[in-house]
UniProtKB/TrEMBL annotation:
Keywords: Cell membrane, Membrane, NAD, Quinone, Translocase, Transmembrane, Transmembrane helix, Transport. It is found in: Cell membrane; Endomembrane system; Membrane. NDH-1 shuttles electrons from NADH, via FMN and iron-sulfur (Fe-S) centers, to quinones in the respiratory chain. The immediate electron acceptor for the enzyme in this species is believed to be a menaquinone. Couples the redox reaction to proton translocation (for every two electrons transferred, four hydrogen ions are translocated across the cytoplasmic membrane), and thus conserves the redox energy in a proton gradient. It comes from Streptomyces durocortorensis. Its EC number is 7.1.1.-. Residues 149-452 form the NADH:quinone oxidoreductase/Mrp antiporter transmembrane domain. It is a multi-pass membrane protein. Pfam families: Proton_antipo_M. It catalyses: a quinone + NADH + 5 H(+)(in) = a quinol + NAD(+) + 4 H(+)(out). This is NADH-quinone oxidoreductase subunit N. It is an enzyme of class 7 (translocase). Coiled coil: none annotated.
Length: 529
């Protein structure tokens, strides 16, 4: 007995040497961008309690500063080789990875949130300011976390952190019935999609016994035949929640009413950041976790891409420029169609190489810049015409020539026509991805949809430079007109400096990318993982 006790310390020491450590180290620099954004959200919420009403405008500038700081923190991470929250049992599975894909999407998300703040600074009248900035920062923190997530639990948490504040932001206009209805529809449909996704995640976990994406990929490659059907069901259902966030048909029905009911800056935010969240999730689960089941998600995403771009473009054709049609509703349907194009390279990755994913990233960067620019001009016009009808843009070139030129440029980028060179090249990259993967039928569907989209993009562009209706009516009546302003888009209105800054930034980046498209298209030629 005494001998046993005397050797016990040595035995314990040997066991300690062989047992895995349960203490994880944290790479604080790697997680700094989403962490700073989340801390800023809490700080804004607390500060709002103590600021007098006349100083609450400072919260907006604090939000802007926090997002700028988060963007700056991406610079030391540009090498893209950092991981943290890793399993300590000898495997290489980590829950957070700051690779090149993560950094590009985080830059898109945080940049989109930054521009959303610029659009919102002079558009929060009648809104609870502190809650608004808190919810926007909280959603941006979740959106920045998602592309770095490398296990299904973190992916689901990040998706919900990005989504739940967005529901409140859509319905934040108190007393506005349309805003409340939009938020309710957005919330209920999202909850259903999330429930379906969680069911799929549970099936995947039951099949593999792990939540880490890399380990899921290894174990799905050798699934017993008895569990094959369960694994396929898990793969398909897991994609549902992310397909909802991307507004892929048939999960798109919430988009038009939500964009119309939400504050205009939030509609812009959802059209860019919301899509980035959805596409990041789809890319991560398909390319990293489910490569062995490409025969399941590849055809499904190809069909979704064709259906989404067709539904979006056909619905956008109905926004025919009459007074009853809303410019924001047209942008909503346009965003649905653009989601279809973004899905094409992901579907192509199932048939060829993972490098096809770069085409989606390149297209997403182009789309984010020009779509936010279009929403910026819409916010500018809404200051004179709250209804924001397409007819309200007629003659915009007479009083806001630079805004009209910028919107025309953004619409041509979305259409893929010169001088919007970046839009043209991005569409060619997506088209090439489908052709290289042997998806000739999908390339044909995309080509047809690009032609359809030309009609409503060019029609809107032409409206910008038409003679205002009021001027035409005055000329026909031969009535002298020395004072007054046209009522349909040419009426003068004040452009606040934050809105002007957002327009200048988006236009400058759009022109830069059209002059040097390789800055974005290089992502289409490399493997980001």
């Amino acid at each position: 007995m005494t001998a046993d006790l005397s050797t016990a310390p040595g035995v314990l020491a040997a066991a300690a040497d062989t047992a895995p450590s349960v203490v994880q180290t944290i790479d604080w620099l790697a997680i700094a961008p989403p962490t700073l954004t989340a801390l800023a959200a809490l700080l804004v919420l607390v500060t709002d309690l103590f600021l007098p009403a006349h100083r609450k405008r400072l919260l907006g500038y604090g939000t802007l500063t926090a997002l700028a700081g988060a963007l700056v923190l991406l610079i030391p991470l540009r090498a893209g080789d950092r991981s943290t929250f890793c399993v300590t049992t000898g495997t290489q599975a980590c829950s957070y990875t700051a690779d090149h894909f993560t950094l590009v999407i985080q830059a898109l998300v945080l940049g989109g949130a930054f521009l959303t703040v610029l659009l919102s600074l002079d558009d929060t009248r009648g809104l609870p300011v502190g809650e608004y900035w808190f919810l926007l920062l909280a959603s941006a923190a979740g959106a920045a976390l998602l592309p770095a997530s490398r296990d299904l639990a973190t992916l689901v948490v990040a998706l919900e952190v990005a989504s739940l504040p967005a529901f409140a932001l859509v319905g934040i206009k108190r007393g506005d019935r349309r805003s409340s209805e939009a938020a309710l529809k957005f919330f209920l449909s999202s909850v259903v999609a999330t429930a379906v996704m969680l069911l799929g995640v549970s099936f995947v976990y039951a099949t593999t016994g792990t939540l880490h994406l890399t380990e899921i990929a290894d174990r799905l490659a050798d699934v017993p035949p008895v569990l094959d059907t369960l694994a396929k069901a898990g793969v398909a259902l897991t994609l549902v929640g992310f397909a909802f966030k991307t507004a892929a048909a048939p999960f798109h029905f919430w988009v038009p009413d939500t964009y119309i009911g939400a504050p205009l800056p939030i509609a812009a935010y959802l059209s860019v950041v919301g899509k980035a969240v959805g596409f990041s999730g789809i890319i991560l689960v398909t390319v990293i976790a489910f490569p062995s089941y490409a025969d399941v998600w590849g055809p499904a995403l190809a069909v979704l891409a064709a259906l989404t771009m067709t539904v979006g473009n056909v619905a956008a054709l109905r926004q025919d420029g009459t007074r009853a049609r809303s410019a924001v509703r047209l942008l909503a349907w346009s965003s649905v169609a653009q989601a279809g194009y973004l899905l094409v390279p992901i579907a192509a990755a199932a048939y060829s190489s993972d490098e096809q994913i770069g085409s989606t990233v390149a297209y997403a960067l182009m789309y984010a810049v020009v779509n936010l620019g279009a929403f910026t001009v819409a916010a500018l016009v809404a200051r004179a015409h709250p209804g924001n009808r397409i007819a309200d843009y007629r003659g915009l070139c007479t009083t806001r020539p630079l805004a009209a030129l910028a919107l025309g440029f953004f619409l041509l980028c979305l259409a893929g026509l010169p001088p919007g060179i970046i839009g043209l090249f991005a569409k060619v990259a997506v088209f090439s991805a489908a052709v290289d993967a042997g998806l000739g039928w999908l390339a044909v569907v995309m080509a047809v949809n690009v032609v359809i989209a030309l009609y409503y993009y060019l029609r809107w562009t032409a409206i910008l430079f038409r003679t205002p209706e009021t001027t035409v009516e005055s000329a026909r009546a031969r009535t002298p007109r020395t004072t007054g302003t046209p009522a349909s888009g040419a009426r003068g209105f004040h452009a606040p400096s934050p809105l002007t800054t957002a327009l200048v930034l988006t236009a400058a980046v759009g022109v830069l990318l059209s002059g040097a498209p390789q800055l974005v298209l290089r992502f289409a030629a490399v493997n980001l993982f």
